[in-house]
Amino acid sequence: MARELRIEQLGRIPYAEGLELQEKQVEAVRQGVAGDTLFLLEHPPVITLGRRADPGHVLLATAELRARGVELHTVTRGGDVTYHGPGQLVGYLVCDLAARAATDVHGFLRALEGGLIDALAALGLPAAARPGYTGVFMAEAGPRPRKIASIGVGLRGWVTYHGFALNVTTRLSDFAAIVPCGLSQVVMTSVARELGSAAPPAAELDAAAREAVAGAFSARFG
Amino acid sequence: MPREIKMPKLSDTMEEGTINVWRKREGDPVKKGDVLLEVETDKADMEFEAYMSGTLEKILVQTGATVPVGTPIAIVRLETDSDQEMTAFLAARGQAPLGASAPPASSPVTPVASPAAPARAAAPPSTPAESPRRPTKAVPAPLPTPTESPLAPPAVRGEPAGAVSHLPFFLPDPDRVRATPRARIVAHEKGVDLSEIGGSGPEGAVLASDVERYLESLENQQDTLLEGDVHATPVAVRIAEELRVDLARVKGTGPGGRVTKRDLRAHLEREAREGPSRETELFGDEIKLSQKRKFLIRNMVESKKTAPHFYISMDVDADPMRSLRERLREEGRHVTYTHMIVKAAAAALERFPDVNATFRNDRLVRFNPVNIAVAVDVQDELVAPVVKNCQGRDLEDLAQAMDTLIRKAREKKLQPDDYSDGTFTVSNLGMFGVENFYAIITPPQSTVLSVGAVRQVAFVESDEIRVGRRMTFGLAVDHRVLDGVRAAQFLAGLKRILEHPDELLASNAAHGA
User: Fold this and answer.
1) Do the beta carbons of residue B450 and residue B436 sit within 8 Å?
2) Which residue from A215, B281, B344, B490 has the least number of CB within 10 angstroms?
3) Quick check: B436 pLDDT over 70?
4) What local confidence, expressed as pLDDT, does residue B452 receive?
5) A38, A93 in Cβ contact below 8 A?
6) CB contact B444 to A (< 8 Å)
7) How near does any CA of chain A get to the CA of B73, in Å?
8) Which phi and psi (to 5°) does residue A26 adopt?
């Protein structure tokens, strides 16, 4: 069903503000006064736990996290533990699946993966989904799977929120504080790390990633 | 007629869903559009809304459980439903009405996804003849309850050992798999379990090329994402998860030492032969712990391991508190013992700043604010919301702040900020008739006050036997922070304030203003 996707580019906003933003948007979409929207933004350092997250996957004490300026939030989305921080492109996709006649949660997760894989391809990186492990990984297999984007979705009725987090120029050492998504053998990677010496300066790369993601998601959901 | 709520199918490929949390409780009124529960599948979490109005009569599947799509998970009673209708509806499903307890034989569905749960004694043996024909998690209609599903472990208490027929149908005998001689040779050389391969030859026979392709796919998935050094084929991982077999206990004979389906079969056969292990006899159902509970447990263990606790106690005359409460009640103000105790503790902590302190990096560090945590039991969960910045606040103000927090706790709306950064804890078990006890210190705090019940006592004063009311205050103290004398002075100070209502009513006790 033809339904437009509006893309709203935001800067770095606190996690709580991001939640509020989504809350409002979800309600507006449910009441039919707003269309589907993809918010692209960044968060200051924050660790979030999905409903069934194992607190054991947060490896630092709350006090230590606070000392490092990292917030801790529990949220109503699927998935385990996730880290957000500067250099990571966060996409909140508020989307009415019923209005799109696409009431299939797994289908939606696969579409998110597809959008990210397209965006990474546009940036020159071959990425792939790993059946059974929602998220996006680098296609070429190394000794350990390298995860470049995390996915976690919440639904109120058939309206989605939350979405994905793509590591662009993220400081990967910050992931040391958690076991990402409970997968202890996965290493986190970023667009910058995968591009290596071919990577442009951080600001330029961040902008390019936003453009690639906006393009890929417009094509898929627009 | 009452309505059954079933585990929703949120995707064509969804076979089962997990109940993350029930947002409504049994007996709660439900309006169309209210969020009833949160269901998780894969990495999506859906807030599932009621599509009818009425009362949530019965929850059949509890929080944390994973059940197949279509499994009844709750019963909603519509406003038009009569009692008789409701009772008949429940009886037809082997359920007792709300308020009565269900007979054990028809107790609510047991979670199937608790990790590594041992065999359930009540599970009947699943034989191939009874099993549905699909080797996956999907369960066709009519839906068996999970305890009757083919996924129940085969070794069941009371069943004689050696019954190979009890093995799940999806663990076939590898020797019976159709394969070409060439495929058998290659499989044998490489340790491949033929029953894991879908054959492309006539009648599904496995060809040598199928084995090669399978080996290649294994190479590409060399990481099976398991904890520790356990290696297993993807098929084995899936089956082990369903049967709740600990792969670390299974010897792997597959390619690269991987555990295969064949190895799982051998393992289960041995267990069946040797009978249920001693562990299975001793341990029953597992109860999944909430995140908060796990945090709490870790904290308590840590506390007892690192903080050298010592304990003192003192009796406090409860009559002044009692008469103050009466007096305020006549003025239309409602205060409880806990309110007064928190107020007194705040004032005492201001007078004894060394008590409002912690041991940190070989130093004593005083806390800046006085933040008092109040332990509350909410639906069998211990929470301790924190009244922040108690210093200098009057009784009424503190009582209000405390009531707001306790209300939030009851409504399960506490935010992490509401229960963090306590510097002192008050725990009151008086209302349960406990006369004295000592709670465990919550790090990084260094003391916890345990309040017992008000009791009538006979005591001697001026050579006469009199009658009065007393309550016992227990104080657990971290010896690294305080010595006995300081702790005693603090407790005596607290007692003095509680026995002098004027001090309780002072708005700024610490500064004597």
Assistant:
1) yes
2) B281
3) yes
4) 95
5) yes
6) yes
7) 18
8) -60, -45
Residue B162 has pLDDT above 60, yes or no: no
Give the residue numbers spanning the domain of A36.
Answer: 5-221
Q: What ipTM does the predicted assembly reach?
A: 0.81
Test A152 with B21 for CB contact under 8 angstroms.
no
For residue B428, with 0-12 CB atoms within 10 Å meaning exposed, 13-18 middle and 19 or more buried, which class applies?
buried
Residue A112: strand, helix, or coil: helix
Return mean pLDDT, chain B.
79
Query: Residue B93 corresponds to which amino acid?
Result: R
Is the Cα dihedral B228, B230, B235, B241 positive or negative? negative
The answer to whether residue B161 scores a pLDDT higher than 50 is no
Give the residue numbers of A marked as catalytic.
Answer: 181
Note the pTM of the prediction, 2 decimals.
Answer: 0.46
CATH of the domain at A191: 3.30.930.10
Yes or no, beta carbons of B43 and A152 under 8 Å apart: yes
Instruction: Say what the pLDDT of residue B507 is.
Output: 63
Judge: B41–A49 Cβ closer than 8 Å, yes or no: no
pLDDT digits (tens, 9 = 90+) for A111-124: 999 999 999 999 99
Measuring CA to CA, which residue among A105, A111, A112, A76 is closest to residue A91?
A: A112
Q: Is the pLDDT of residue B414 over 50?
A: yes
CATH 3.30.559.10 in chain B: give the residue spans.
291-511
Query: How close does chain A come to B357, measured CA to CA in Å?
Result: 16
Is residue B40 within 8 angstroms of chain A, CB to CB?
yes
Q: CA B160, CA B169: separation in Å to the nearest integer?
A: 19
- Interatomic CA distance for residues B449 and B439, integer angstroms: 7
How many domains, chain A? 1
Give the span between the Cα atoms of B31 and A103, in whole angstroms: 23
Q: Which residue has the higher pLDDT, B13 or A89?
A: A89
Q: What would the pLDDT profile of B465-494 be if each residue is shown by its tens digit?
A: 999 999 999 999 999 999 999 999 999 999
**B291-511 classified as CATH 1.10.10.10:** no
Q: Any idea what DSSP says for residue B316?
A: E
In chain A, residues 149-178 whose CB comes closer than 8 Å to chain B = 151-157
What pLDDT is stored for residue B171 in this prediction? 56
Instruction: Provide, as residue numbers in chain B, all residues whose Cβ is less than 8 Å from the Cβ of A134.
Output: 42-43
- Whether A63 contacts chain B with CB within 8 A: yes
